């Protein structure tokens, strides 16, 4: 059986009391969630003026991601379909409000009120049809349509997600575009299987400079070890670039080998009886660039 | 659930043209103190539907808010205090939200409104 929770049971059943508690008591998951939400918040690119914004957390679960939002001073409310997860959130006394709601039924919010939305590892659930009445396409359409309406102009929505395959990614992206969003995928660490994280960054409103998609982390072959978070993840991922031995340092400098070196070599060749040009003031001089 | 959230929520039952504001049925209200942040209040003020907000606050038993408000009120500390208290400190703990058009009841338990729709309402 696959380890993906999406294929095991519908979310409201999979995240039962036991699973919800397990999810929230694991320090590893908590840390990963906090990191993901930190990055999602960064991608939201809220104006840096210290004013708290009203944010929406879709699939807030036990409020791990909401905690990051609170730490950054923002007001938020979250929705989730699993009552057990929300119960754990209540126990943890999260600061935001919680709603028991299904994102596939559309968000019941007034138009243009939210300053941003984040969602950590949730949107891929929409691609499953858990009941006969569920049609993933209709659910995605309802979700993105209602999200577009409730966001303020120019606001962003950032979803961290785990698409199962290429088709799923395309499906999600195409419905987001159809709802009127601009934006695309941002992939952090595309070269690493485990650290690879995908974010769907969407902007509400007509395309402009601000709707351009930010760059992912570690995209241009930047080695894993350069990242500040590498200490704790070093056991999870093997860093290939570290396996190579360091190359011998080449002594070559810009100036070349120098006059002494050339004179010594010429002397050696003369002793061997080779024909060698005379030593002049031009020996070992650099040619002019126009040559 | 705070009134901030209530002011953003609307009923999204299929066929409902205007699902805002949801009526409140009160069983239990609690107060939780939080720090006042004037920047946030100024930022959120234009987005609040004042009439619905004042009405909801009255339903929860807080009648200090003026009937009408405009952005010039925001300079007064007294107004900010009241606004803050009603918006962020009053919690509807037990009760229900009721769709203004269809009368559908969304129960609120432990402060969490159950907004799940039945299959025929989607």
TrEMBL record, chain A:
Q: Compositional bias (Acidic residues) spans? A: 221-235
Which family does the UniProt entry place this protein in? Belongs to the class I-like SAM-binding methyltransferase superfamily. BUD23/WBSCR22 family.
Instruction: Return the CDD domains for the record.
Output: AdoMet_MTases
| Chief location of this protein within or outside the cell | cytoplasm
| Basic residues bias spans | 244-257
Q: Please give the organism.
A: Juglans regia
| Taxonomic path | Eukaryota, Viridiplantae, Streptophyta, Embryophyta, Tracheophyta
Gene3D superfamilies reported in the protein's UniProt record: Vaccinia Virus protein VP39
Location in the cell: Cytoplasm; Nucleus
The residues covered by the 18S rRNA (guanine(1575)-N(7))-methyltransferase Bud23 C-terminal domain are 202-289
Q: Which residues form the Methyltransferase type domain?
A: 56-158
| Residue ranges of the region described as Disordered | 211-291
Picking any one GO biological process from the record gives:
rRNA (guanine-N7)-methylation
A single GO CC term, please?
A: nucleolus
Any one Gene Ontology molecular-function term assigned to this protein's record? rRNA (guanine) methyltransferase activity
- What is this protein called in UniProt? 18S rRNA (Guanine-N(7))-methyltransferase
Matching Pfam families: Methyltransf_11 (PF08241), WBS_methylT (PF12589)
Keyword annotations for this protein?
A: Cytoplasm, Methyltransferase, Nucleus, S-adenosyl-L-methionine, Transferase
From TrEMBL, chain B:
Check the record and name the SUPFAM superfamilies matching this protein: Trm112p-like (SSF158997)
Q: Which GO terms describe its biological process?
A: maturation of LSU-rRNA; maturation of SSU-rRNA; positive regulation of rRNA processing
GO terms for molecular function, please?
A: protein heterodimerization activity; tRNA methyltransferase activator activity
Q: Which interval of the chain is the signal sequence? A: none
Give a Gene Ontology cellular component term annotated to this protein: cytoplasm
Taxonomically, the superkingdom here is: Eukaryota
Coiled coil regions in record: none
Q: What Pfam families does its record include?
A: Trm112p
Q: InterPro entries, per this entry?
A: Trm112 (IPR039127), Trm112-like (IPR005651)
Q: How does it assemble?
A: Interacts with TRM9.
Q: Which family does it belong to?
A: Belongs to the TRM112 family.
Name used for this protein in its record: Multifunctional methyltransferase subunit TRM112 homolog A-like
Species of origin reads: Juglans regia
